[in-house]
Request: fold
Amino acid sequence: MSINTRRSFLGHAAGAVALATAPHTVFGQAAAPLTADVDALTAKAARFLKSRQAADGTWSAERKEPGITALAVAALLRSGQATPSEPVIVKGLAYLETFVKPEGGLPDAAHANYTTAVALTAFHEANANGRYDGVIKGAQAFLKGKQWDEGEQKTPADPFYGGAGYGGKNSRPDLSNTTFMLEALHDSGVPADDPAFKKALIFVSRCQNLDSEFNDQPWAKKVNDGGFVYTAANGGTSVAGPTDDGGLRSYASMTYAGLKSMIYAGLTPDDPRAKAALEYIKKHYSLDENPGLGERGLYYYYLVFAKALSVLGGDRFKDASGVDHDWRAELIAALAKRQGPNGEWVNKADGFMEGDANLVTAYGLLALAATRKKAS
Reply:
């Protein structure tokens, strides 16, 4: 996470103070001691993940989804449990490189946009001495080229505009793939003023249940709670389902993903979209479930929860009831409680592929890595 991006969010009009002095304080208190040993949890999970790599460098190859391998590599590197020169990483990256094309990205992967985004993160984490500079630049260009914009005959008036989909046969844009794209671009050094972020902000804003100038979709004013849905494309879709009057229910995992994406695009804390998203989060703060979906997508929720609150930069989060939370300690405790005997995480509610222990353990490792405070 770059210091400049954090400052772009917190620095505007003394942003930390502005949020800290608003009702239901977000920032400003010292962190409490962690309730679980994050290093032990991380090491145990990494041992499990390493043990699950196949001889050809893959994880969960039977799913024909190289993005899982990319997530596993990125998780092991970002958690500090592997180095770029270790065989487990070398083999994983070598497998991913078989999909890389001279024109950039991993276009032949089943879900080309998604796989390129998570692979970009993995190659960036492993990029010692500029070894993967070319792959990184190519992946950045590929993702920008596949973003829905004028190149696909879309204008800012179109609900597709600025978004990213899975790629391949399913390229309809959605907020999850868009946030993976933005995070990969951000982490690999693309600045917030890049056109890709500006275009994406239009799409992300349309995914928010907020009656405002930023969302012209008819369903936005029907719920109007500041939360986010899966996509604004094709009339809008929420995994949490519709309301009786044709609205789309918000849910927490997409709300954290949406807020994080807006921050990456340079949004400031006085923007009504950021304020509304924070109010939704305050009202639905939980580590017992993915609010709006229950157990479904729980570990993806933990991942975006950790990353969004990390980029916000505060140690404490006060919910709408006035309860003050040490979010890092609570997330670590939630993961500790759910970790399996071999270090794995897996979701019994097998939606969104969370029955795959390799995928979910990678999510867990990345979430734990996001709890570590960044050097100032």
Notes: The chain has a mean pLDDT of 90. The radius of gyration is 19 Å. Residues 9 and 267 are 6 Å apart (CA to CA). The longest helix spans residues 298-312.
